[in-house]
Design brief:
CATH class of the largest domain: Alpha Beta
CATH superfamily of the largest domain: Metal-dependent hydrolases
Largest sheet: 8 strands, parallel
Radius of gyration: 21 Å
Strand order of the largest sheet: 8-9-10-11-15-16-17-18
Number of helices: 14
Length: 468
């Protein structure tokens, strides 16, 4: 068997498969990149069989919140290293954020970035488009036609018009900076996005509160004081009002706090079409981990208290938080090794998404919940639920074989992202990704990359304002 092997048909046999009816001892039959049946029927003579006895067979993960840094800062990460890390972790589709260079704020930029991604991507990919303060309805329509999965609004961030990078700059008087979108921009454009049938994702930190608490970030305590949880709660409450008035699917990215979760719960009870995402770092870590993790823990919004962490785990267990993504945001290890005030914000995470969620789901009491968080619900959010996120006939054969008897120790030398040191360094999860298939082609096997750049751009089905 060679690394280039790509059968037209094969069977994954003997594993415990997560089907739409729950886990079953059944074989997965694949032909031409698509799942053809789930059964224990004997396949035709000569059909290739993958022995999955003793393993779990899961749908490939869809990470709806990654930062490729490509184009613009490929020394931090490019589509090749991003998607190799994704493949290593069982993530078969990534949805890239628009703050690359140039920012994805026009159809032509999206199309150019997609062409670049196709030349390097080892997994499938989609793209968020940027919502600027001056974005027009016509620009939204063009971006939707070009294939954007939705729109992202960075509350509290400004874009440099000449330096071409994202800056945290509330309260700064700098003519070079384009002001971030405010609630008025969201209210103006939300009905258009609702009509297009796409979600509106927000980085939920209120700019006014961030401006009032702005200070030099010399210590981790400074970071927590500069970005208080009230900023998240206020932004969520305001965005939820806009969502309720416009029927847009409002998606809260990287929820990090108990007050933010409480604001979201109240909005959902009132009928706002709101969906919630959190990240493994907020579910596993607290401020107490900073002495161990150091600047790898510097990110926006910050990792907060143990009480915030526990509230988020509870919200996920209850189903109020619907999905887990990573906010995979690497830099170089040299950049992150700088002093706390100089180190850029962000950490890698795509490679450890699945195993960290499997371990958390096991501790909650139902290991199969992990696939709901990282595959089924993300597929619904970005309009891919008709082709991805489920192991069923007619779906793409994006499949992950996980060994529940082998552990994964998060070690920098095993990471495939350009930034090897991340916030979860040293953690030990009780599952290991053995094999990964993208549309029926093996892309990862036993710790090794298989095949080349076969990733394709995915386009969403536009389903209106209904939440996943």
């Amino acid at each position: 068997m060679t690394d280039s092997w790509k059968p037209r048909s094969f069977v994954i046999a003997g594993g415990t498969v997560l089907t739409p009816d729950g886990p079953r001892e059944v074989d997965v039959h694949v032909a031409d990149g698509v799942i053809t049946s789930l059964s224990s029927d004997t396949p035709p003579e000569g059909t290739r069989t993958v022995d999955a006895r003793g393993t779990y067979v899961l749908p490939g993960a869809i990470d709806v919140h990654v930062h490729s840094r490509d184009p613009g800062f490929p020394q931090k990460e490019d589509f090749g290293t991003l998607t190799e890390a994704a493949a290593a972790g069982g993530v078969t589709t990534v949805i890239d954020m628009p703050n690359t260079v140039p920012a994805v704020d026009a159809a032509g930029v999206l199309e150019s970035k997609a062409a670049l991604a196709r030349s390097k991507a080892r997994v499938d990919f989609g793209m968020w488009a940027l919502l600027r303060s001056g974005t027009t309805a016509e620009e939204l329509e063009s971006l939707a036609d070009a294939g954007a999965v939705g729109f992202k609004a960075y509350l509290g961030y400004a874009f440099s018009l000449t330096r071409k990078q994202v800056l945290y700059s509330p309260g700064l008087d700098d003519p070079d900076l384009e002001t971030p979108p405010d609630y008025g921009t969201l209210a103006r454009l939300a009905p258009v996005i609702a009509r297009l049938g796409l979600p509106l994702a927000i980085h939920a930190e209120d700019p006014g509160i961030l401006s009032a608490f702005r200070r030099p970030l010399e210590t981790y305590s400074d970071l927590l004081a500069a970005r208080p949880p009230e900023a998240e709660a206020v932004a969520i409450a305001a965005a939820a009002e806009i969502a309720g008035a416009s029927s847009v699917r409002m998606h809260v990215a990287h929820l990090s706090s108990a007050p933010g979760l409480a604001a979201a719960k109240e909005a959902i009870r009132a009928g706002a079409p709101l969906s919630l995402e959190t990240c493994p770092q907020y579910l596993w870590l607290s401020e107490e981990d900073f002495p161990r993790a150091g600047t790898a823990m510097k990110m926006f919004p910050p990792i907060r208290s143990a009480a915030d962490r526990d509230a988020l785990v509870d919200g996920l267990a209850q189903g109020v938080i619907g999905l887990v993504a990573t906010d995979h945001a690497p830099h170089t290890d040299e950049e992150k090794a700088a002093s706390f005030d100089e180190a850029p914000a962000g950490s890698p995470g795509v490679q450890t998404l699945y195993v960290s969620c499997l371990e958390l789901a096991r501790r909650i009491g139902d290991v199969w919940l992990a696939a709901r968080w990282v595959s089924e619900a993300p597929a619904a959010l970005v309009g891919l639920q008709e082709t991805k996120g489920t192991i069923a006939p007619g779906y793409d054969a994006d499949l992950v074989i996980v060994d529940p008897g082998k552990r994964t120790l998060v070690r920098p030398e095993a990471m495939r992202s350009r930034q090897r040191h991340g916030a979860l360094d040293g953690m030990d999860f009780g599952f290991s990704v053995r094999e990964v298939y993208l549309r029926g082609a093996a892309i990862w096997r036993d710790g090794r990359r298989v095949g080349g750049a076969t990733g394709r751009m995915v386009r969403p089905a536009r389903l209106g304002s209904a939440l996943p």
